[in-house]
Amino acid sequence: MLILATNDDGIEAPGLAALARALGRVLGPEGRVVVVAPEVEQSAVGHAITLADPIKVRKLRRNGGNWGWAVRGTPADCVKLAYWRLLEGQKPDLVVSGINRGANTGLNLLYSGTVSAATEAAFLGLTGMAFSLDTFDLEADYGPAADLAAELAGRVLERRMRPGAVLNVNFPYRPDLSLADCVVTRQGLTRMKDNFIRRQDPRGGLYYWQATEKVDPADPAPHQRPTDQLALAQGKVSITPIQFDLTNHRLTEELGSQLLDHEPGKKV
Q1: Per-residue pLDDT tens for 82-127?
Q2: Residue 215 falls inside a structural domain
Q3: Position 91 in a domain
Q4: What is the value of pTM for the model shown?
Q5: Beta strand 65-71 with 32-38: parallel, antiparallel or unpaired?
Q6: Which tens digits make up the pLDDT trace of 188-207?
Q7: Domain tally for the chain?
């Protein structure tokens, strides 16, 4: 059994280390976790890939052994490069990304490098899981989230989830996480409020520091499945199945008559 682990916080991030250790315990001596992650932080790069520059890689050692591959590229680069080259023809049974510092819910999924690594796995016909922890504390304990992430990954492997599936998982920052806290959610669509802080450098130059503010996670449609944002706000572990088909299927039925002046399905 082979799991490919990556992230967007960089290969030295504590969330990745905690996740890799927990996965190793779940797999046991018969399994293997291979870490291929960005050399430096790549937060909010979305699904960017490197085309105009060479992608440099180096092996990183830790505690006297190989820890993984540090890649001078994006999270999507890491998954592509691992699949086509670094794993030397071995196909991962699962690709995991995280554990990210900070939640990835709602419209943030489109910016997230963490989520994009998991969706890149789906592009390749693999199963992907993205894990995020709802805290920005630099001293955060990733242990409880990592243990539950590994348990969820083990279940995905045991039950052979369909290739191309992607699960976006967000953990509240709590020490007592368990499967009982998990709920299946839908992606929230509430917009975040952007705040640009105006500052001045020592030479008088003007610059702005972007500081996104959270919005009220209230569910606008309570009769439907809860959103990832609402579940997280209620202290639940949010598990959202996502896809990369961006087609607006509702609009396709209207577009012919509204834009092309003919009825849907009518020959022109």
Answers
A1: 999 999 889 999 999 999 999 999 988 999 999 999 999 999 999 9
A2: no
A3: yes
A4: 0.90
A5: parallel
A6: 887 777 788 999 999 999 99
A7: 1
